Amino acid sequence: MSDYVLRLVVDRLAPGARMAPLPAGINRAVYIAEGPAILGAEGSVACLAANSAWHGRTEATIRASAAGARLLRFELAAGSGDDGLASSEGVESRLCLATPLALDAAQPSLMRCDRVDFPPGGVAYTHTHQGPGIRCLHAGRIRIETAGSAHEYRPGEPWFETGHDPVYAATSETEPSHFIRVMILPRALQGQSSIRYVKPEDQQKPKRQSYQIFIDAPIVL
Q1: 49 with 78: CB under 8 angstroms?
Q2: Facing residues of 217 across strands?
Q3: Confidence (pTM)
Q4: Cα 158 to the center of its chain, rounded Å
Q5: Top-tier CATH class for 109-219
Q6: Per residue in 85-115, pLDDT tens?
Q7: Are strands 133-139 and 177-186 parallel, antiparallel or unpaired?
Q8: Whole-number Cα distances in Å, 203 to 160, 195, 212
Q9: Which of 11, 8, 32 is nearest to 20 (CA)?
Q10: What integer pLDDT is reported at residue 66 of this predicted model?
């Protein structure tokens, strides 16, 4: 087992601002919360619209459009690495959450980045996942009950789930809610759901949440 850190950094780029190159060797998923943003990696350049994502572990450059940009940057880094903050003119970078993980580099893994949407009054019945991850609420409200405690999150607030601790989630009764999530999962789950419902009576209940998968990519630790 080796020590890693799964972290979420939020980058705000002023109109036309360019981030210092993101270093190679770190598995990362960059979600464009507000955009578009222009991303360059491995000799190619792409314009990424809001509500899209990019994954890689190569050096990458990111530049905001004339409207500016806001990025959710999820990174899985070696435990002894830096804090991941960018220091460039016109770029405000904030470490929102960092959680240590012990991972077995010999076990094939994947990084999944997705968006989970709930209608007003939506719930996720008591469940587990097959790997740890960080979530960040993007709209609405959500109450997370796990490990004997409960906390309500508002837009922009992140939280960590171990995967093995059962979680019950309830969202705003008056407005839609959604969050962005990155999980580290067994590679055998590529293209498959990672959720497991804990209570037998919840298995057949209608599930009102919907999923938009941006990245489901094998990674090398």
Answers
A1: no
A2: 111
A3: 0.96
A4: 9
A5: mainly beta
A6: 988 999 999 999 999 999 998 999 999 999 9
A7: antiparallel
A8: 24, 11, 22
A9: 11
A10: 94
Using one digit for the tens of pLDDT, what is the confidence trace for 135-162? Answer: 999 999 999 999 999 999 999 999 999 9
Asked whether the beta carbons of 20 and 63 are under 8 A apart, the reply is no
Residue 204 tokens, joined? 């057949």
Give SS3 for 202: helix
Q: Spelled out in words, what is the top-level CATH class assigned to the domain 2-103? A: mainly beta
Can you tell me the distance from the alpha carbon of 183 to that of 217, in angstroms, rounded to the nearest whole number? 11
Other CB atoms closer than 10 Å to residue 205's CB: what's the count?
11
Break the chain into its structural domains and give their ranges: 2-103, 109-219
Stated length of the chain? 221
d(C-alpha 61, C-alpha 91), whole Å: 13
Percent of the chain exceeding pLDDT 90 equals 93
